[in-house]
Amino acid sequence: MSRKKKIVVKIGSSLLANSEELTLRYAFMSGLISDLAQLQKEGHDIILTSSGSVALGLNMIGKRPEDAGILDKQAAAACGQPLLMNAYRQIASEHNMDVAQMLVTVEDMEERRRFLNIKNTMMRLFENDIMPIINENDSVATRDLRVGDNDRLSAKVAQMVEADVLIILTSVEGLYDKDPSEPDAQFISEIEDVSEHLESTTSISALGSGGMLTKMQAANMAQNAGVETIIAEGIIERPISSVLKNERRYTRCLVTGETASPLKIWLSNRLQVAGTLVVSNQVAAAVVAGDCGIRRQDVISIQGDFVKGDVLHVYDESGAEVARGLTNFSSDETLLLARHIDMPVEDVIGYKTKSSIIGAENILVLEENHLPIDAPEEGQKLVVPR
């Protein structure tokens, strides 16, 4: 505890809100903030990723979690976010702690310039000993354009600030090899390969949008960014420092292998797929070997509606994802270029530029420990056979 750490803490709705009355659990919040304030006094930089706005706002619009649709949740988030932040601010003030609110969307985290702007804001807050409290902007996010859960959002934040540790507090002590309610369930204290434990992570709480599966996905993202992840029970007294000092049981997800550059990490840890390219197995093997980027004549098919600067996922003919990279063209331009490989680029799209769809300098070959994410369901466009 002597070295200054960057600590990202994620709190779910089930810890912050009573599941029946949909009211704040002030005792838990008070214990949490007291603990974080002490860690901040010891010199650590703290970021709190907090759910809870939707759960708290449902009462105001007369809805229960199980009956609420996307529009209800958007309205509930608008109602609940001020309640949540007001509670955090009041409790923090009792500990002479300053807090700031940051609401983000998936587009903020996936677009490079916005991502860096958020990072710069958090760095300035750290300089002034202010703790950022981050939540997804649920009042404007749609089903197709949302992070989906604050577990993976917290992993993106941990990646962003190059955190030492990501601590995800939940309603159980950590990960078990099966449903913890089963008598023969075994506790798992340490994990190297997250993918080996996905089958035991299917449950979702009544208030949260994620479950243990999203926590494992978050741990995988954090691992690939060089950040250790701890999954622990959200107790009232010293919920964070008791874990950091190994005073109670938890699951630790280790960091394995070498950590890539910040740009490569950003490329690899995605929350949504903007678009995909399918290339031949021969080209895929060359990409994996580090010999090339993706040229227009390499493209077999594309999927998704993307713009220049988006991150595309590259697949071989068998459907295995091999790389991710920044595209130099939109989906429409890529389709035209792939269909007219004998024409100069400027004649096809109307301006002169580099011809590669993804340059070799902007492509990242995926390791086996990267978990796949769902490809877009809409907008598939197949390249016309040449």
TrEMBL record:
Binding positions for ATP per the UniProt entry: K10, S209, G210, G211, M212, L213, T214, K215
Any one of the GO CC terms: cytosol
Catalytic activity: L-glutamate + ATP = L-glutamyl 5-phosphate + ADP
Pathway in which the depicted protein is active: Amino-acid biosynthesis; L-proline biosynthesis; L-glutamate 5-semialdehyde from L-glutamate: step 1/2
Binding site for substrate: S51, D138, N150
Matching Pfam families: AA_kinase, PUA
Top EC category: transferase
Segments forming domain PUA: 275-341
InterPro entries per record: AceGlu_kinase-like_sf (IPR036393), Asp/Glu/Uridylate_kinase (IPR001048), G5K_ProB (IPR041739), Glu/AcGlu_kinase (IPR001057), Glu_5kinase (IPR011529), Glu_5kinase/COase_Synthase (IPR005715), Glutamate_5-kinase_CS (IPR019797), PUA (IPR002478)
Residue ranges annotated for the Aspartate/glutamate/uridylate kinase domain, each copy included: 5-231
Record's keyword annotation contains Ubl conjugation: no
Keyword annotations: Amino-acid biosynthesis, ATP-binding, Cytoplasm, Kinase, Nucleotide-binding, Proline biosynthesis, Transferase
Subcellular localization, as worded in the UniProt entry: Cytoplasm
EC number: 2.7.2.11
An individual GO BP term: L-proline biosynthetic process
GO MF annotation list: ATP binding; glutamate 5-kinase activity; RNA binding
HAMAP family the record matches: ProB
PANTHER family hit by this protein: GLUTAMATE 5-KINASE, ISOPENTENYL PHOSPHATE KINASE
Record-stated family: Belongs to the glutamate 5-kinase family.
Function according to Swiss-Prot or TrEMBL: Catalyzes the transfer of a phosphate group to glutamate to form L-glutamate 5-phosphate.
UniProt name for this protein: Glutamate 5-kinase
Gene: proB_2
